[in-house]
Amino acid sequence: MATQRRGKGEGSITRLADGRWQARVDLGYEGGKRVRKAFYGKTRKEVQEKLTTALHDHQRGLPLPDERQTVGQFLTDWLDNTARHTLRPTSYDGYADLVHHHLVPALGRVPLAKLTPQQIAACYGDLLAKGLAARTVQYAHAVLHRALDQAVRWNLVARNPTDAVDAPRPQRKEITVFNTEQAQQFLDAAQDDWLHALYVLALMTGMRQGELLGLRWQDVDLAAGSLSVRRTLVRTSQGWSWAEPKTAKGRRTIALPALAVEALRQHRVRQLEERLRAGGLWEDHDLVFPNHTGKPLERQNVVKRSFRPLLAKAGLPYIRFHDLRHSAATLLLSLGEHPKVVQERLGHSTIGVTMDTYSHVLPDMQRKAASRLDALFAAEAG
Questions:
Q1: What is this structure's pTM?
Q2: How far is the C-alpha of 218 from the C-alpha of 89, rounded, in Å?
């Protein structure tokens, strides 16, 4: 076994018995511990280049990579020890799903220190070729970027390779909404449904499904004709729970039209009657829209057993439950309501989000504005 020694602090290069080359560097003591690093390669030139790069990075104050830890090992550790404790439960579940089902199978065996932008870009291309939506791959990019930012802070890698990779840009989908006539058709069809008030609120307030299912009676003021959004119902791998709104704007008070107030009054009477019938089986969580024993409703059960059948009953095209929120915003904007008011009712973080999401309504608003100007100046001329 041939060895070439270098001076103190410069490292050494060794030919191993299996034919590989090894470069070792002793960096002295850091934080009371002796720091040694080893790099491996098929040729002497390869490990020489790694050693030179490592020493150069060390002189610049950059961390030296650990070639033994793989991307899969790092991502798993990051999920368990960091993401789990810093993310909302629903966000953690989404991160874990992307890591375990897409990122680790594609990149898991790659040494973390050797992960390159080219490998990451190829991973995204493969995921798209397998049929994943561009938005899903974009989300995977965001997860990987966040994880590797942590690797940089932990001094596991010198730089984040995702910084040099462009995530796929998803095509903007047209929003499907009810017009005024369709909204009325839907509410008529839901008139006798036990969740009639839920659909009235969805179309009158633009609340998210989780906000509606997490709404408590203590947050509803029927006398004042308003309600407060203070939490949302979330479903995770651990079961259901309540979470705070994601942003400060998400915590909001919404004025209710008389139609919604009356629907809630009737709903409360029916709920009290149902509670008496349930007797000891009822679990009191103070929910406005619980199931038949007082427990939180499952989102998918609402969609499958109530929402979709009502669409069919009304003879309306299929839309998502979330599109009721879009319908509420679109109807308000079409009526000439100021976008700032719509933003506040929906709980968007900024008015820019509102304007960007509902840009399809702007041309009609522009035409109405032009007509009002025509009428104004025609009157002045007369």
A1: 0.69
A2: 25
Query: Residue 119 phi/psi, 5° resolution?
Result: -65, -40
Q: Are 86 and 57 in contact (CB under 8 A)?
A: no
Contact 178, 319 (CB under 8 A): yes
Question: What is the secondary structure of 213-228 as a DSSP string?
Answer: HT-BGGGEETTTTEEE
Q: Which residues pair with 244 in a beta bridge?
A: none
Q: How many CB atoms lie within 10 A of CB 153?
A: 10
Rounded Cα distance, 206 and 325, in Å: 4
Identity of the residue numbered 221: D
Other beta carbons within 10 Å of 44: 16
Spatial distance between the Cα atoms of 234 and 244, rounded to a whole number of angstroms: 10
Encode pLDDT of 164-179 as tens digits.
999 888 777 778 899 9
DSSP 264-301: HHHHHHHHHHHHHHHGGG-----BSSB-TTSSBPPHHH
pLDDT tens-digit series, residues 174-206:
788 999 999 999 999 999 999 999 999 999 999
Degrees (nearest 5) of the Cα angle 235, 237, 238?
85
4 or 52: which leads in pLDDT: 52
* DSSP code, position 161: G
